[in-house]
Structure formats: structure tokens, C-alpha cells
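Notes from the pairing session

We agreed to fold both candidates in a single pass and log them together. This is the raw record for the first candidate, unedited. Please don't reformat it; downstream parsing expects exactly this layout.

Candidate A
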Amino acid sequence: MTGSSTPADPALAFPFIGGRPCLDFAATLGKRHATPLERLPDTAALARWFTEAGLTTDEGPARVTARDLTQARLLREAVYSLVRAAMAGREPDQVDVDRVNAAAAQPDLAPQLGPARWTAQSPARAALATVARDAVLLVRGPLLARVKECENPDCSLLFLDDSQARRRRWCSMDRCGNLAKIAGYRSRSRAAATR
């Protein structure tokens, strides 16, 4: 099944604010510390994520099967766990390492010069392999030290802090940063009113 329509529920829109494909893919499960929000409820949503992430071939949206969706969700959780363990300086769970390594070992999307951006024999599996390889490169590389989790307690999005001072606290100012500013303003206003 393929699809690229916008979701009816705005909460199911994909946040592409992680700064890396693997972090954006991990964000397809939102609000991990509250009531988890599954942004990949079906094969059409996964096909839409591939399209919006720019991980499609010239043949159009990837054909996504139920098996691809299951594998994608398992890979997403392995990537998230792997990155979190690396951020904390802990040894990752071997099951997660094996799952990411197995996906990364598959043929990924091959970049192309000219009008075609990517090519692959199995576009959905190749897109997942591309995400897995990005996770391996991130965890093994110098950018890992710049990966942070949003400070909003209801948000669980991971992002690459590309700010000059490396002091970014929120996944996005438009999302959690603005909510924090509003909450701080209201708190200060209530405190001033009680004095």
C-alpha cells in the first residue's frame, strides 16, 4: 500500500526537527514519557514518512507491506534505544545492536547524479537500511555528543544541537520552546498577582 496524503489528525504529522534521518525516524513515536503517540499506525503512514523524509526513488512513494511496517517499528525502537544508551555512555542492548546492524547491512538507497535522486530494488527496505546506517554513523561519530533530548517533560524527541553555543534545550522553539515560554510567563504573572 502506498500513500502520501496529510494525516487528518495534526498530532500525527511527522516532526522533521531531529537534524538526522535516524532521529527523525525515532520521532515517529512521540510522547514516549507520557502516553505514546504512534505516528506510523499503518503502511500508508510509513510510505508518507519515506516521501516526506526524501527517501523515495523516482518511481514514486515506496510500496510498503505489513512486514515492512513491523520491521520499521522494530528498527525505530532499536535506533532510539541505541542512541539513548550511547548518549548515557551505557552499553547498548545486544538485540538493538543486532537489529540496527542487520538493517544497515541491507542494500540502502543509492544516490544518483542527474534528475534521479535515489534508486533501489526494494525501496522500503532500502530506506530503512539508509536510516539504520545513519544511526550507526551517528552513534560511532563525533556528532553524538551534540544529540540531546527535548527538556519538555512531555516530549521525548531527540535532536542534534546545531546551535552555535550548543545550549539548545527544546526540540523546536515552535513546539516545546514556545510552550515553556508561555508557562514561564503565566507562572511569573500568577506570582506577581499574589504579591
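Candidate B (folded immediately after A)
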Amino acid sequence: MNLLSGFIGLVPVGMMQGLTYALIAIAIMIPFRILNFSDMTGEGAFPFGACVCAKLLMVGLNPVAALLGGALAGFVAGLVTGYIHEKAKINTLLCGILVLSMLYSVNIRVMGQPNSALFAFPSIFSWLPDDGGGYLPRIVMLAVIDIAIGAGVLWFLGTQHGLAMRAIGSSPSMAKAQGINVKVYTLVGLGLANLFAALGGAMLAQNQGFADVNMGFGVLVNGLAALLLGEAVIGNRSMTRQVIAPVLGSIIYFQLISAVLAIGFQPSDLKLVTALFVLLTLLSMAARKKRPASGARKKAGMVVS
């Protein structure tokens, strides 16, 4: 009974975290699934957006302008990753690692210190009606933002530019033969992905009331776990499912984390639990792919005999 009550008490917090971190899951989905580009910049763009947002709040900008500023900073980070890859022709993962490493120092320069408290500054959540300390208004606001962003991404991927971006992920050489500027669309795709990652970091900073240069540690694994979980639940065979999967997966993933905490695990165990969860999900997905192949071989053997 204590386990169940503990889990129920963590459900609202898990919902808020899931809806916030859904943006980093979307940021992972775009380069990995749409562009076929292994990008790790999101782990640096997430705190970058938070730190820029915090600085803009401290200099007097309103919360919406601070969110947009943080998101734009993430867009620039994505452009830098793409530019390094195009100019230096080095591995995509290494490009992301280089940029996220540089962003750690940039974040400290932006805020002037490793962390900043934002309790004295307004946020988008301070505009919500007071429900006695409950989480429902914040959950509703985050859900509306996620739905709007998901709808926008789905609409964009159905446009001519979105189709060109998807063509690059399927076959860059074929896309180039069709007259698509692969470099430009890759840069824009990485910029958009990291824009969402930075926006998630900025929203988290306003929600929790502080920004820290280390708040991006491990978010890439969390986002990947959410993406894989969402795809395991609803699949990714249509563009609509590809967009819904990271959001749904993020919500389910953080509810699972709440259950793990309710069981008695310590917060310090969550990195291990997440890594094991990602590993088990990848193994199960690999096993699923092998089953149809083995079935096809058996049928072929029966036909030959």
C-alpha cells in the first residue's frame, strides 16, 4: 500500500518531467530518424538554452522572450555542429561532442557563474492560476506546448522542405541528384532539433527556478530511452507515429522512473536504471527484427523441399 501511495504521489511530478523532457526526445528524433545524423549536441544545447534563458530573465526580459532567446541559442549550437561536420568532414558524433564540450565553458561565461537562482524572476508558470500548490495548471500548460510543437513538426515534415529533409535522411546521394541542397537542409535540421532541446532546458529552468551548467548531464540517454520506449509502444512506420512516439515515450518513461523510486531505489541509481533500460529495449528490438527473418527462412526451406 505504501508503494502504491508513493507512486501515486510521484505521478504529477513525473508528468511534468515527461512533458518537459519530451522536447529533448523530439530533438533526438529529428537527427537520428529524419536526417540519419548521429548528433549529441542536444546534451549541450539543453543547459545552453537554460543558461541563456536565465541570463535574459536577469537582465529584465519577460519570460516568453527569455524562452525564445534560449531556443534561438540552441538553434545556433545545432548550426555550429553541422558547420563543423561539413567543413572538417569528421564523424558526426565527434562534432556533437566537440560542441557540447565547448558549450560547458560558454554557459559559465553567459551566466557568469555555474548556477543561478531564478525564484525572484517571473516565469511563464507564474501567470497560471493558483490551485493551492497543485501541479495541474503546469501540466496543462506543458501539454499544450508539446502538442503545439508536435503539430508544428508534423506539419513541417509534410511540406516541400520537410520532404526534402526526409529525402536526405533516406539517401543523401539521391537527394543531391534531385537538386536538394544537402548541406543547407542538414544545417537547418540540426538547428531545429537543438532549438527544441534548448527550449526544453529553458522551460525546465523556469519551472524549477534555477539554471545550472550541469543540468544537461544524462539528458541524451533519457531522451533516447523515451524515444525507444515510444517507438516500442506505437511504432514508427508513419510520420505521425514518429512525432508522437518521443512525447508519449517520455511521459511513460518518467512514470516508470517514478515507479522505480517508489520501489525504493535511490536517485543516484537512476542513471544505471536508465542505461539498463535502453540496453534491454535495444536487445528486444533486435530480437523482433530477427524473428521475421527466421520465419522467412523456414518458409523458403519448406518450398525448396
